[in-house]
TrEMBL record:
Keywords: Methyltransferase, Transferase. This is Class I SAM-dependent methyltransferase. Pfam families: Methyltransf_11. It comes from Nonomuraea longispora. CDD domains: AdoMet_MTases. The lineage of its organism: Bacteria, Bacillati, Actinomycetota, Actinomycetes, Streptosporangiales.
Length: 254
């Protein structure tokens, strides 16, 4: 039985959006995963080093799922609800969880880590990453690519122009910071939203898709999208992801 608009929206508006666990969307929305398998790659890298830093760890979901953590594992996060979740997941495994303010400088000594990772960082601080890496150390990051989920954003906001998340620009910035880019891959991935509750939940959680989103502010567009899904089927969008791997050349610690 199809559920009414008000029921779907009320449910999605009341559920917690803390952390980066999207399991609430099971059966209501889908998103293809990048072919490279970030969690698997992260686990492989972490198994070979003695010290690692995960920047902007969110609720610690990805790092907590890795089979083996290095003896020295540190994660940073700024948003208090996520910080609490990350601590509950990672501290029992011996990892340190550090609060930061999402602005350079990273609160660590130069050359402190063999490996640095970040999944979907808001901003990549290339110079700071290069500073805290040991010579010969490496950085692995899956990032949001250009025009990600623009179909959904433009439904609410109208036509959008330009995108700041360019993989080629990330490569240039990494090299400018003194890192050697050893891998760069990009993919666009199909997404489907099967009911308006899934859309509301997603926009509440991924706040940069429609900045300032609220049910009240976008009531008319939400009802229009609900009617469209009911008559035409799932709303289709495409996420953009790129994987970048960089290495700090051997030499004196910065």
């Amino acid at each position: 039985m199809r559920r009414a608009y008000d029921d779907l929206v009320q449910e999605a508006a009341g559920v917690s959006v803390d952390g980066w666990d999207f399991s609430w969307l099971d059966g209501r929305a889908t998103e293809e995963r990048p072919s490279w398998g970030y969690a698997r790659l992260l686990g492989e890298r972490l198994a070979t080093v003695g010290s690692a830093l995960d920047i902007q760890t969110g609720g610690g979901e990805i790092l907590a799922g890795v089979p083996t953590l290095p003896p020295v594992t540190v994660a940073t996060e700024s948003w208090p609800p996520n910080l609490k979740l990350a601590a509950s997941r990672l501290r029992p495994r011996g990892a340190w969880v550090v609060a930061d303010d999402e602005e350079p400088r990273l609160p660590f000594a130069s050359g402190a880590f063999e490996f640095v990772a970040s999944r979907h960082p808001v901003e990549t601080w290339w110079e700071e990453i290069a500073r805290v890496l040991r010579p010969g150390g490496s950085y692995l990051s899956q990032q949001v690519g250009p025009r990600s989920v623009y179909e959904l954003a433009e439904f609410f906001l109208g036509p959008l122009h330009g995108s700041a998340r360019d993989p080629a620009e990330a490569e240039r910035e990494a090299e400018a910071a003194g890192l050697e880019v050893v891998g760069l891959r990009s993919e666009r991935l199909r997404m489907e939203f099967r009911d308006i509750g899934a859309v509301v939940y997603f926009l509440r959680k991924v706040i940069w898709i429609v900045p300032g989103f609220s049910v009240g502010r976008y009531e008319d567009r939400l009802r229009a999208l609900h009617d469209r899904i009911e008559s035409e089927g799932p709303f289709v969008a495409h996420s953009a992801r790129f994987l970048i791997e960089a290495r700090k050349p051997d030499g004196p610690t910065a």
